[in-house]
Amino acid sequence: EWTPEAFVDMTVNELRDKIGSDKVVLGLSGGVDSTVAAVLLHKAIGKNLYCIFVNNGLLRKDEFSNVLNQYKGMGLNVKGVDSSKRFLDALAGISDPEEKRKKIGNTFIDVFDDEAHEITDVTYLAQGTIYPDVIESISVNGPSATIKSHHNVGGLPDFMKLKIVEPLRMLFKDEVRRVGGEMGIDPELLGRHPFPGPGLAIRILGDITAEKVRILQEVDHIFIQGLKDWNLYDKVWQAGAILLPINSVGVMGDERTYEKVVALRAVESTDGMTADWVNLPYDFLQKISNTIINRVKGVNRVVYDISSKPPATIEWE
Ligand code: XMP
Predict the structure, then answer these.
(1) Boundaries of domain holding 238
(2) Where do the GMPS ATP-PPase domain residues begin and end (predicted)?
């Protein structure tokens, strides 16, 4: 029978045998998979694991500093790299969703490659790949084609030529969470909703500016904190806010306003492949909508997305 305890013991031993005194680099995202992979490797090889956590400027409000501090508190050897400006510059003027993803993917690869070069004599690249990723990648692209297709200028960056270690590649998501729990990772971190790699970029419809990111971070923060305060967070599989590229008319006192609309989305799902919108209490929606409109300058209307997947995807882009 599979137990997280036995998995941790076995995997830590295997990683030690395989890696010896070589160095490993790993990109942390703040998500469950990369964090659990890092903690397993840290248990096995300690300071020879070099973690890199990149701020792409598209994370949730205060997420970069909060998560970075959490990682440091866990004893991980982690370097936080704030590349917000580099990402926002790369995204300037771009509205097409796939174009956004490509820019973000390529910028990440460039930043990560620069950082990986700072570590002398690194041998391995560790990844938090889990079993469903393995299956998807093989069936859609053939092994490891996905990441390579992102970077088709000037050949492969050096870090992609490193030997790969993927300690979670036989696990499903719930097993990854149990392994994380076994190693003492904060349950709050393990219970975090999924968050897309391109972050808020694909929740800002149209082009991206620092001001739009700031507005969406405030809205998202009120929504997510509200879900937590109302004990709804754990009943929802994923939630977030979308900044729409339209203005609507409103009134404030005697003044007519013409400001942004945000949509809130909360879904139930098991794997993201299909999803239903969540029947959040009206009292909750009323409170959150008022708070957003009162507190976030530039927003005068809130709508709730009541579309299921299929046909509507979870993200709007
Ligand atoms: P959709 O919108 O396709 O989303 O219903 C399904 C799940 O995938 C996430 N998602 C992404 N994750 N990069 C990611 O890492 C992406 O480009 C991306 N697009 C969607 C989405 O948040 C949901 O959990």
Answers:
(1) 199-304
(2) 2-192
